[in-house]
Amino acid sequence: MEIWINPACSKCRSALTLLDAEGADYTVRRYLEDVPSEDEIRGVLDRLGLEPWDITRTQEADAKELGLKEWPRDAASRGRWITALAQHPKLIQRPIITADDGTAVVGRTEEAVRDAMSR
């Protein structure tokens, strides 16, 4: 199991606390420092069953500067969104936990983190 975190994020810290309390075996990826490639983002999206706009933090300054709220959310625009996430990793929703069964969750709640641990 791997968890993508921003150490400054309270939801990330809560997820780590829960994983530790449950004795989970996981690897931490500080995705702002170890930025995921476009291929890695595509892979995580496939595992999540989501589209890039579903995991984009549209309230971030970078998102506003890019005008992301106005971008089309369709198959033709998917690559553009993925490129934006790779170039501006702060826009990626967090934490993202990749489960051992090949799936992933956005672990913003205790229930989601527990779900990832059970997979």
TrEMBL record:
CDD domains: ArsC_ArsC (cd03034). It comes from the Bacteria. Transmembrane segments: none annotated. InterPro entries: Arsenate_reductase (IPR006659), Arsenate_reductase-like (IPR006660), Thioredoxin-like_sf (IPR036249). Pfam families: ArsC. The keyword ATP-binding does not apply. Keywords: Oxidoreductase. Belongs to the ArsC family. This is Arsenate reductase family protein. It comes from Streptomyces iakyrus. The lineage of its organism: Bacteria, Bacillati, Actinomycetota, Actinomycetes, Kitasatosporales.
